[in-house]
Amino acid sequence: MNITICFDKLDPAPWVQGLQKAFPEATVSAWAPGAPPAQQAIVWAPPQQFIDEQPGLQTLFNIGAGVDALLQLKLPPSLKVVRLDDAGMSVQMAEFVCHAVIRHFREFDGYDADTQAGKWSYRKPRNRADFAVGVMGLGVLGERVAKALQVFDFPVNGYSRSPKDLPGIRCFSGAQALPDFLAATRVLVNLLPLTPDTENILNHATLSQLQKGGYVINVARGKHLVDEDLLALMDSGHLAGATLDVFRTEPLPAGHVFWQHPKITVTPHTSARTLREESIAQIVGKMQALQRGESINGVVDALRGY
Ligand code: NDP
Ligand code: OXD
Question: Atom 31 (ligand 1): residue with closest C-alpha?
Answer without folding.
Answer: 66
